[in-house]
Amino acid sequence: MKHTDIELILKTDEFVGKTATVCGWVRTARDSKNVAFLALNDGTTLNHLQIVIDKNGALEVSPEAMKLGASLKVTGEVVKNTNNGTNEINACEITVLGVCPPDYPLQKKFQKLETLREMPHIRVRTNTFNAVFRVRSVLAAAIHRFFQERGYVYINTPLITGSDCEGAGEMFQVTTIGYSTDYKSEEEYYADDFFGKKTGLSVSGQLEGEVAAMGLGKIYTFGPSFRAENSNTQRHVAEFWHVEPEIAFCELPDLIEIAEDMIKYLIKDYMEKCPDELAFFEQRFEKGLTEKLLSVVNNDFAVVDYTEAIDILKKADVKFEYPVEWGCDLQSEHERYITEKVYNKPVFLINYPKGIKSFYMKQNPDGKTVAATDLLVPGVGEIIGGSEREADYDKLIAAMEEKGMSKEGYEFYLDLRKYGSVPHAGFGLGFERMIMYCTGMANIRDVILYPRTVGNIR
């Protein structure tokens, strides 16, 4: 049906003095003897449009139009509110498109995020999730723009794969057979399955991304990844979105520069395009959010060697829940101490022990560490994990054997090291964690439309 977006009515004066038609949902309703007010929102903006109803006029308004959650089509003259200078509509015609009964879940002005997670199909109508998903959209567009402007090729890597990129075994199985006692062995079971071998949902598009980079030079993927990790933390979901560039003729210092440029680009774009949303998150979720983001944009990130970070943590006058020793995998409490207490800005940790990192990372000359980096940010911890990739065939084979990995399923990956291998590198950005950082939302379940977690497929 023909109508004008509420965002346009509110943001431009070209409609003032003219008749316009808008559609939306009733967010609030106020009634008095002579006049009634409705706040209408259609999802195009965080702000609501006030509808003014003159009860002494000819307009007859159905009681259903005054109920929270009802959807309306409103036609009237756009006028300037003399008190606050915003545009509003003096209604001359109101059509109820969808009635809303009294059990509408969003009757309260404020509801806990935990409560709203129980109704993901309704929570998108709240101010919070209106803002969250608008920011998500803007950041997604900025990611594509960043890479496209720099000559990267957008690649779609498979979601069903026969190889575990991380080698951690946290893959969801893909099968058409399901539970069965008809097979004597695992090999017999998978031989009869759809693909004829064990397959699962991809934990990362990196391996296939490297394939593309070896012919196209610079590529990026942007899509869902799946981790069957039995974790209920505020930073983990089983299905999340991943941004993964892979770059040929690239070493670790080059990769760090690209990652920093990308983070700053995304934040600048968000701050420019979403001022209302940023102000909302600053007021409701994280005081000082704007200052934090400006600090990221205007300052160089720190680059700290893992070994140095361990020394800092061991000397810290803090009792950590998890003890710190060289060779340990840093926990969130350690990452946040480094970023929030020591450097107070994003930090690239580099040169991790090879024992706690993936098989494909380039081995450093010391034989103990790999050319890996994690980008740690205040308030969230790790949002980027990356490395220079091992380009030497023999060293890659040795790393796989050391971790007890089979070469089966990785033949294509090993071939890349046989036929014109080059130094190359890449990283993965957890998209939801980036949204958390930009909005101040503390739980990853609140920045994705339908969070998939252990025991929850709502």
Mean pLDDT across all residues, rounded?
Answer: 94
Secondary-structure element string: HEEEEEHHHEEHEHEEHHHEHHEEEHHEH
**Principal-axis shape:** elongated
Strand content: 15-25%
Q: Helix proportion of residues, in percent?
A: 25-40%
End-to-end separation in angstroms reads 32 Å
Rg over C-alpha atoms, rounded to the nearest angstrom: 27 Å
Assembly level:
single chain
Biggest sheet: strands, sense, closure?
A: 8 strands, mixed
Low confidence ranges: none
Q: How do the strands of the widest beta sheet line up side by side?
A: 6-9-10-15-14-13-12-11
The number of distinct β-strands equals 15
The SS-based structural class is alpha+beta
Number of helices: 14
Commentary on this structure:
The protein starts with 5 loop residues before the first helix and ends in a 19-residue tail after the last helix. The chain has helices at 6-11, 113-117, 120-123, 127-149, 186-191, 206-216, 252-273, 275-284, 289-298, 306-315, 332-343, 393-402, 411-418, 431-439, and strands spanning 19-31, 35-41, 49-54, 71-80, 87-98, 153-154, 160-161, 200-201, 218-226, 239-248, 302-305, 347-353, 369-377, 381-388, 424-430. It contains 14 helices and 15 strands. The strands form three sheets. It has an eight-stranded mixed beta sheet with strand order 6-9-10-15-14-13-12-11. It has a five-stranded mixed β-barrel with strand order 1-2-3-5-4. A hairpin with a 3-residue loop joins strand 13 (369-377) and strand 14. The protein is an alpha+beta fold and 458 residues long.
